[in-house]
Specification:
Elements: E1 5-13, E2 16-21, E3 24-30, H1 32-41, E4 46-51, H2 63-70, E5 77-80, H3 86-95, E6 99-102, H4 104-108, H5 111-120, E7 125-133, E8 144-148, E9 153-158, H6 159-169, E10 173-178, H7 190-199, E11 204-207, H8 213-221, E12 227-230, H9 232-235, H10 241-250
């Protein structure tokens, strides 16, 4: 059995670590590079960095920032926000990012996923999906819709169908960001995560809603996720990476005790 992963998300806005609730009311809360180093030393398995305004502002991601992070940590980390071409993805890889996350630009042009996977490998190509629950319709039968531009623009695209399409196009992993659960600390969107995890054969990272260690256990078992992404509970000092992993280990979840 493969180990389950603990992933920490660092949303970056204007070079500062930021946090929101349901993708709104965003506040700056610190230095993302210093936090990355701290979480690395505390045993996190992976880090994910999102430049949360790059797509909305139609600008490139900050390469200098990626290079600085890469010099401070020695674990896998992925970067997303403003990636619109193979050149963007390659530049990030050369700057030290192990994986790239595509989101808005991939919705606008699906071929981007295949192009990036062909250039840097499926294992380095992550499809990040911002998802909001809606009333089921003929176009959105799952009741979950893809939203882009940092959770601002609804697309009318069914999340389950987009996940399956993303895998077929070459994505090697999915990040499922529940807008409804984001920052609430009320638990992950288990139904959403399980539905998508059961429909694809690539790893699924659950994102949004972690408030206590039990929530991670729930999404890694009942939610069928391969990894649990956390943010608020570590950013605000409620739990450390070590405490979360020790809890999961104590509940029989196979995790890497890499500290």
């Amino acid at each position: 059995m493969l180990s389950k992963r603990l992933v920490i998300c660092l949303d970056v806005r204007g070079g500062k670590l930021a946090k929101s609730v349901k993708f709104v009311d965003t506040k700056d809360i610190g230095d993302p590079v210093a936090r990355a180093r701290r979480y690395y030393e505390d045993g996190v398995d992976e880090l994910v960095f999102y430049d949360i305004t790059a797509s909305r502002e139609n600008r490139d991601i900050m390469i200098d920032f990626v290079e600085e992070v890469a010099s401070q940590i020695f674990i896998p980390f992925s970067v997303g926000g403003g990636i619109r071409s193979v050149a963007d993805a390659t530049r990030l890889r050369n700057a030290g990012a192990e994986k790239v996350n595509v989101n808005t630009a991939a919705v606008a042009r699906q071929e981007l996923i295949s192009e990036i996977a062909g250039a840097i490998g499926s294992q380095s190509t992550i499809l990040s999906m911002d998802v909001r629950r809606v009333t089921p319709t003929q176009d959105i039968p799952s009741g979950y819709e893809i939203v882009v531009n940092g959770g601002v623009t609804p697309t009318g695209i069914d999340a389950l169908g987009w996940a399956v399409t993303g895998e077929k196009l070459g994505a090697g992993e999915l990040v499922i960001n529940s807008i409804d659960a984001d920052g609430t600390k009320d638990g992950y969107a288990l139904n959403l995560t399980r539905m998508i995890a059961d429909a694809v054969s690539i790893p699924v990272i659950a994102s949004g809603g972690a408030g206590k260690p039990e929530h991670l256990y729930d999404v890694l078992t009942a939610g069928h996720a391969d990894a649990a992404l956390v943010a608020s509970i570590v950013h605000y000092g409620e739990y450390t990476c070590r405490q979360l992993k020790e809890y999961l280990h104590g509940r029989g979840i196979k995790v890497r005790m890499n500290y």
